[in-house]
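Before going further, learn to read the protein records used in this course. A complete example follows; check for yourself that the lines match position by position.
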Amino acid sequence: MTIHREGKGTISVVLIFSILILLTAWRFGAGDVILSLLGVGTLILLSLVLQFFRYPQRTVASVPDNFVLAPADGKVVVIEDTIETEYFEDERLLISIFMSPLNVHSNHHPIDGQISYERYHPGKYLVAWHPKSSTENERHTTVYASTNGPILIRQIAGAVARRIVNYTKVGDSASRGGEMGFIKFGSRVDIYLPVGTKHKVKLGQTVKSRIDVIAEL
């Protein structure tokens, strides 16, 4: 199992914390039963953190240029026409993917293109499904210019996810399936597409980044 680079610091902290707990318990004369329970507990904690930061090796789906791949693993929770107010300021097709703590949390470029806009916004930490989370929570917006029209991706923090990582810069070339960023400990990714775009997913469907097609421009 490959571990994402964003997890190295967290894993090191959890490992050191686990060792200190066990050494402290042993130093103060904890019995075998207590030490065994602490050992099992720290192993469970470490395994959960390792699973969260896992980075599976995947072959990027070979699809036509106008097909949009899922930028994140998770469940499709919104498919609707709505007004995008930060960049386009007009109506767009919105597809939202909810990432639970059990999902892979790396985010990837959904299309080939060029980064024409990116901006980080500090904010609140409402639960990811709250109607105002996309405009009031901590978030990072990335816009891709492509031959099939621009699309916007918004990484949104939630009640648990409190750190968004984004690797893009304006002017960068993006290759479909390449790494865009990472959201720590669950949240949501919104994809804004031109009205009239044909979505290829259904509400409640589970998708995987770099593999599943979510729309056709």
Observations:
- The longest strand covers residues 74-84.
- The helical segments are 8-27, 32-52, 133-136.
